[in-house]
């Protein structure tokens, strides 16, 4: 109950906002027929405006029932609801209406009260969020077609929006997960953190299937190592005995190192003792200390210009005579040298000290040269130094370098692996530091480099295999950290062998790559090593043999790297570890891609990479391999999901659901690729990972889905719907799987939209861009069936319509809402399709518009038939028709549906399609298409509008007999004591009040026009009938009086001006109601008005003067001009007779005439006449003076009529002036014409031929015409 009340209140508020109405309407105030007065202030609520243009949704909003209403709220759906609500909050989907807050509050209260306990309402939240129209239709209406339109309209859209919301939620989750394991965050983590194992136990061998042949060479190396194991072991023992560097003082003793080496080399005790003796007897090695002078900073100035010319002197404290000097860096306090020196160590390093001195070079200069520096002096202190130098040079002629500072470095403080450090420069008797010096120091020997490298590789392999075996480290875990014993042995070997850092890195890279084939190491290890090696390779800092070793190792490493890209979707790998692996792999590939492999070096042999697309010539193209690896990984994943998501059966529904599921999984994979890896691939190797995936997936989906969809759409043609069919078996509906078909359409559409964003430049070349063509048959069939089902539902809706208002704020009933619901669902379906092809889009829109127009006309016909026969009543007086609310609702319903047609077409996107047609073809074609659609719409609108007019005419025609009978009774019994007049007024009043109250303004105005025309026709019939019966004028006067009373009871008299027919009929009725004398005077008044417009008369002109003096009328006939010749001699014998009209008002007043003037066309009469009038005669309304000019016959019996003129009393002055002082009045002479006989007044007189007065007047009137 709450939902209905809520929706009703929402509808009322929406309607008021739409129409800008006050909250309280002013009802129509009916006028009292008895009191016969008009209520001036008749206000009606403005519910619709003529020619208003509103969107289709706004029209639907007026129904007051909103989609937020849910018919059945199942209890257990709350779990899904809260889940969906929280997720929607995460992605910040804003609520679009206050109704959401109300519903949420109510729902929370009900949850707290534990009123709900059932399950699943996945789309519940979306219903409230969308706030669209979804009328609560009668279930019986939906049963007609099994909820066909709901399935493909709102529910279809809600399902699509729910899927989109879920995709947004999934996207947000993926983005958050990607942010948590982004490379930036991974880089911030400590290297000491132990990553979790990322490969299952049965996958310890990363590339065991890909590198069988590569291991043959490794076996050869192992054999060679085994043959020289004793020598290598003896060398290790010797290095332990003769440790160099500060490492000697660490906690690891020699005994522990000997034990570790024996375990690593797997040497027996006897052999160990033997090799130990040989190592002890071996001569100590000749070591060198390598020193690199890098730079100095913040040196103290020693010259007068505030700078120095520094150079470095270095030597061993035990051999001060053997000194090494660097170059001089002139005029600087922050010199950069980067110079290398090698000093031989002749004795025990524990007691030796390296001395570093920084001097200021003082060149030999004369006094004159030193005086030339006076302009470069800086400060007072500099001036003192310059003066001192000049004095020394002048007295002794000598020059000496000045010490800036020195540093002493004990060799025992230098680790075996060497170090780089800043040392403070000090000076005797100086407390303040003199500057800092940066140096790099390391030990080395004079051993052959190639032998040293080979020994180091063998030693590194043995120690690493030993540590991997003893520690049982998981695959991909070991990242270069040895135990302290292993690290000490390797460090001493590097130091005493004299290996450079690049040589060490290359050896490690080769050994690690070989071991990585059988026991996966951390890829970070290789990435870091490559960062060092690549710079050396690019800078030509490596020999050819090392370069060959490097590329052979790279060839062994790459299969595992490529496998990481292919298996990027493995579920048994921690996401953080996987991201780190991918990052390292991409760094490795990027480094390798920056190098040029040796000629004819096949980096990617086909036997190891059978899936690569480029199979000819040595293949070293890293970007192509990445693309092939991504595509192969996607293919493996696609095969995997298809294998694990098999169809339960081969029905169309199962096939559709299977395709939807596969597309959703593929989209999820793409989303993860976008959020996790795409940015990483682009930034690291400049490869668009997500784009490559999409290109692969779209081709596979097109191949997989297109034939399936086309076949399913063809199967929809199995049933042929006929429009004569009323009931059908819904279980056999060919669109029972249609929901899934169009869900698939939306899924493919979203997939294509994703591709447009990923590949904007290439999307037009994809086959999937024409995906809509796969569904063309399904959409066309759906529209065919939709027409039939729409007509079925409309017929049922009209049948079940109770013809009552939907609510108090609107003026239509449920069938109109049900009909618009059909239109709305069709519109929603079309909008969800978002059909991309312009030409077929135009075809579909044209069909939809034509079908909707057809449904509108069909609804109008059914609605008219529904109310036919309603309103017929009978009482003690008569049987008559009463206008009912049902008739008004039927009219409003049809008009309401009509109003939505044009907005509906706009919402279908007709304008946009026409614009695209103009761009695609030509403006002329677009104009033709637009004109075609407009003609269809205009024809439908006109047809529906004509149906409304027909209904209104039917209503009025049903009222006509009663109104005619009541009008006649009113005319017959008007002056008698009868209630017929009251009954007439009440009948008209009640019916028109009902029409006024129930109809909108436009239709009510149409009704009034029809009523006026009906009254005009009815009165015309009554008048003609009673004229033929020679009814007295009193009858017509009473009828006129009755009509005026009736008109005044329901309208403003000024409103009748627009109805010409009623105006003419009312005039006719008024004329027939006049007495004969009044009727004759009406004829004269009409002639007066007509003669006033005469300017150039053929009959001549008469000049007169006239005035009133008290009750006397004085008239002076002065002359006539240009009178028409009446005699054969071309002249006339004229005189003027004066008449006062109307004659029955001036009885007893003589009709004087002037003298006759013979044979003159310009006679001068100059005669005065005085009429003594009574007060009543003086005040006669519309009185006239008629001047009749005649030609006198010889005998005086047959005078001829020349012409006449009229002078109204209203134009005569009442003055005491002499009449001679008044201006002349020139009156053109004229005659009645044939047209004068056609006036209603003359025709009324002709119907009174039985009256002597009328008969004589007509006879004289014709004589005055000159006939």
UniProtKB/TrEMBL annotation:
<dbReference type="Pfam" id="PF00168">
    <property type="entry name" value="C2"/>
</dbReference>
<feature type="domain" description="MHD1">
    <location>
        <begin position="742"/>
        <end position="863"/>
    </location>
</feature>
<dbReference type="InterPro" id="IPR014770">
    <property type="entry name" value="Munc13_1"/>
</dbReference>
<keyword id="KW-0967">Endosome</keyword>
<keyword id="KW-0963">Cytoplasm</keyword>
<dbReference type="GO" id="GO:0006887">
    <property type="term" value="P:exocytosis"/>
</dbReference>
<keyword id="KW-0268">Exocytosis</keyword>
<dbReference type="GO" id="GO:0099503">
    <property type="term" value="C:secretory vesicle"/>
</dbReference>
<feature type="region of interest" description="Disordered">
    <location>
        <begin position="180"/>
        <end position="218"/>
    </location>
</feature>
<feature type="domain" description="C2">
    <location>
        <begin position="270"/>
        <end position="390"/>
    </location>
</feature>
<feature type="domain" description="C2">
    <location>
        <begin position="1094"/>
        <end position="1223"/>
    </location>
</feature>
<dbReference type="InterPro" id="IPR035892">
    <property type="entry name" value="C2_domain_sf"/>
</dbReference>
<dbReference type="GO" id="GO:0005770">
    <property type="term" value="C:late endosome"/>
</dbReference>
<protein>
    <recommendedName>
        <fullName>Protein unc-13 homolog 4B</fullName>
    </recommendedName>
</protein>
<dbReference type="InterPro" id="IPR014772">
    <property type="entry name" value="Munc13_dom-2"/>
</dbReference>
<dbReference type="InterPro" id="IPR052095">
    <property type="entry name" value="UNC-13_domain"/>
</dbReference>
<feature type="domain" description="MHD2">
    <location>
        <begin position="978"/>
        <end position="1083"/>
    </location>
</feature>
<comment type="similarity">
    <text>Belongs to the unc-13 family.</text>
</comment>
<dbReference type="InterPro" id="IPR000008">
    <property type="entry name" value="C2_dom"/>
</dbReference>
């Amino acid at each position: 109950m709450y939902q209905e009340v809520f929706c009703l209140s929402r509808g009322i508020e929406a309607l008021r906002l739409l129409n800008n109405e006050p909250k309280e309407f002013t009802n129509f105030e009916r006028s009292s027929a008895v009191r016969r007065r008009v209520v001036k202030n008749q206000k009606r609520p403005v519910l619709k405006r003529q020619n208003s243009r509103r969107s289709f949704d706004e029209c639907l909003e007026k129904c007051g029932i909103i989609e937020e209403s849910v018919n059945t709220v199942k209890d257990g759906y709350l779990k899904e609801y809260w889940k969906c609500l929280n997720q929607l909050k995460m992605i910040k989907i804003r609520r679009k209406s206050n109704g959401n807050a109300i519903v949420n509050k109510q729902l929370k209260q009900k949850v707290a009260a534990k009123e709900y306990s059932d399950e699943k309402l996945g789309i519940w939240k979306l219903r409230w969020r969308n706030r669209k129209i979804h009328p609560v239709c009668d279930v019986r209406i939906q049963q007609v077609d099994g909820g066909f339109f709901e399935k493909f309209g709102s529910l279809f859209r809600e399902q699509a929006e729910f899927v989109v919301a879920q995709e947004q939620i999934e996207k947000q989750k993926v983005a958050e997960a990607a942010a948590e394991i982004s490379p930036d965050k991974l880089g911030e983590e400590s290297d000491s953190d132990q990553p979790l194992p990322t490969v299952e136990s049965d996958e310890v061998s990363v590339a065991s299937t890909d590198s069988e042949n590569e291991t043959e060479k490794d076996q050869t190396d192992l054999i060679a190592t085994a043959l020289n194991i004793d020598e290598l072991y003896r060398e290790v023992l010797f290095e332990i005995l003769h440790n160099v560097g500060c490492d000697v003082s660490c906690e690891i003793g020699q005994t522990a190192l000997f034990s570790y080496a024996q375990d690593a080399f797997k040497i027996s005790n006897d052999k160990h003792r033997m090799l130990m003796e040989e190592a002890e007897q071996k001569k100590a090695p000749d070591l060198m200390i390598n020193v690199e002078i890098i730079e100095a900073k913040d040196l103290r100035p020693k010259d007068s210009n505030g700078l120095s010319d520094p150079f470095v002197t270095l030597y061993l404290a035990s051999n001060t005579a053997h000194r090494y000097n660097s170059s001089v860096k002139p005029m600087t306090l922050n010199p950069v040298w980067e110079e290398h020196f090698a000093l031989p160590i002749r004795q025990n390093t524990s007691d030796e000290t390296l001395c570093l001195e920084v001097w200021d070079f003082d060149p030999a200069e004369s006094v004159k040269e030193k005086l030339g520096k006076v302009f470069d002096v800086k400060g007072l202190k500099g001036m003192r130094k310059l003066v001192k130098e000049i004095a020394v040079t002048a007295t002794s002629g000598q020059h000496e370098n000045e010490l800036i500072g020195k540093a002493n470095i004990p060799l025992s403080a230098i680790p075996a692996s060497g170090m780089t450090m800043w040392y403070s420069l000090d000076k005797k008797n100086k407390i303040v530091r003199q500057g800092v010096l940066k140096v790099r120091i390391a030990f080395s020997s004079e051993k052959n480099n190639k032998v040293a490298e080979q020994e180091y590789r063998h030693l590194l392999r043995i120690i690493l295999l030993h540590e991997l075996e003893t520690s049982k480290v998981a695959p991909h875990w070991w990242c270069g950290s040895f135990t302290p014993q292993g690290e000490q042995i390797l460090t001493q070997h590097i130091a005493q062998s004299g290996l450079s850092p690049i040589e060490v890195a290359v050896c490690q890279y080769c050994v690690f790559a070989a071991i990585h084939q059988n026991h996966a190491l951390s890829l970070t290890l290789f990435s870091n090593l490559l960062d060092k090696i690549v710079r050396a390779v690019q800078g030509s800092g490596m020999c050819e043999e090392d370069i060959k070793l490097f590329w052979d190792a790279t060839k062994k490493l790459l299969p595992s790297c490529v496998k990481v890209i292919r298996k990027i979707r493995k579920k048994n790998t921690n996401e953080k570890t996987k991201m780190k692996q991918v990052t390292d792999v991409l760094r490795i590939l990027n480094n390798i891609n920056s190098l040029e492999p040796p000629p004819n070096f096949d980096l990617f042999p086909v036997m190891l990479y059978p899936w690569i697309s480029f199979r000819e010539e040595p293949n070293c193209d890293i970007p192509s391999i990445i693309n092939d690896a991504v595509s192969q990984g996607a293919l493996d994943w696609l095969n995997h999901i298809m294998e694990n998501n098999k169809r339960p059966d081969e029905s169309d529904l199962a096939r559709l659901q299977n395709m939807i599921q596969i597309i959703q999984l593929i989209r999820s994979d793409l989303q993860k690729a976008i959020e996790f890896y795409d940015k990483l691939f682009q930034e690291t190797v400049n490869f668009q990972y997500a784009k490559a995936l999409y290109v692969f997936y779209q081709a596979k989906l097109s191949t997989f889905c297109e034939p399936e969809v086309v076949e399913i759409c063809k199967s929809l043609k199995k049933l042929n719907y006929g429009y004569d069919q009323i009931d059908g078996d819904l279980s056999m509906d060919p669109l029972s799987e249609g929901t899934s078909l169009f869900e698939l359409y939306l899924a493919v559409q979203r997939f294509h939209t994703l591709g447009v964003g990923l590949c904007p430049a290439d999307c037009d070349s994809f086959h999937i861009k024409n995906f809509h063509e796969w569904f063309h048959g399904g959409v066309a069939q759906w529209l065919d069936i939709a027409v039939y089902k729409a007509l079925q539902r409309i017929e049922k809706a009209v049948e079940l319509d109770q013809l009552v208002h939907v609510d108090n704020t609107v003026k239509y009933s449920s069938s109109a809402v049900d009909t618009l619901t059909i239109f709305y669902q069709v519109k929603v379906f079309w909008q969800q399709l978002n059909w991309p092809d312009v030409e077929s889009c135009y075809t579909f829109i044209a069909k939809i518009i034509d079908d909707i127009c057809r449904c509108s006309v069909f609804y109008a016909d059914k609605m008219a038939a529904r109310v036919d026969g309603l309103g017929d009543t009978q009482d003690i007086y008569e049987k008559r028709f009463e206008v009912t609310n049902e008739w008004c609702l039927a009219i409003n319903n049809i008009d309401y549906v009509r109003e939505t047609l044009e907005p509906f077409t706009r919402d279908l996107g007709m304008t946009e399609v026409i614009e695209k047609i103009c761009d695609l073809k030509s403006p002329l074609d677009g104009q033709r298409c637009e004109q075609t659609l407009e003609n269809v719409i205009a024809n439908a609108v006109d047809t529906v509008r004509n149906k409304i007019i027909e209904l209104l005419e039917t209503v009025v025609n049903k009222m006509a007999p009663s109104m005619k009978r009541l009008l006649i009774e009113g005319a017959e019994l008007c002056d008698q004591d009868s209630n017929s007049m009251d009954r007439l007024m009440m009948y008209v009043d009640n019916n028109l009040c009902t029409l006024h109250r129930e109809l909108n303004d436009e239709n009510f105005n149409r009704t009034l026009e029809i009523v006026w025309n009906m009254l005009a026709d009815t009165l015309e019939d009554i008048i003609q009938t009673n004229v033929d019966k020679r009814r007295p004028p009193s009858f017509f006067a009473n009828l006129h009086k009755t009509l005026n009373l009736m008109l005044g009871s329901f309208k403003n008299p000024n409103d009748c001006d627009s109805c010409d027919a009623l105006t003419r009929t009312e005039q006719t009725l008024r004329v027939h109601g006049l007495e004969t004398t009044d009727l004759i005077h009406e004829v004269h008044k009409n002639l007066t008005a007509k003669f006033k417009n005469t300017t150039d008369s053929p009959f001549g002109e008469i000049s007169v003067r006239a005035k009133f003096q008290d009750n006397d009328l004085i008239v002076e006939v002065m002359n006539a001009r240009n009178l028409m010749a009446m005699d054969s001699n071309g002249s006339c014998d004229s005189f003027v007779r004066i008449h006062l009209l109307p004659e029955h008002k001036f009885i007893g007043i003589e009709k004087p005439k002037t003298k006759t003037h013979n044979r003159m066309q310009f006679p001068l009469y100059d005669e005065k006449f005085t009429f003594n009038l009574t007060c009543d005669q003086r005040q006669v309304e519309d009185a006239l003076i008629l001047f009749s000019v005649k030609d006198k016959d010889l005998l005086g019996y047959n005078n001829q009529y020349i012409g006449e003129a009229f002078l109204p009393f209203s134009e005569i002055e009442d003055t005491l002036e002499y009449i001679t002082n008044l201006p002349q009045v020139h009156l053109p002479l004229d005659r009645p014409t044939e047209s004068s006989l056609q006036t209603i007044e003359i025709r009324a007189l002709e119907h009174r031929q039985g009256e002597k007065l009328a008969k004589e007047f007509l006879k004289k009137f014709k004589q005055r015409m000159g006939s």
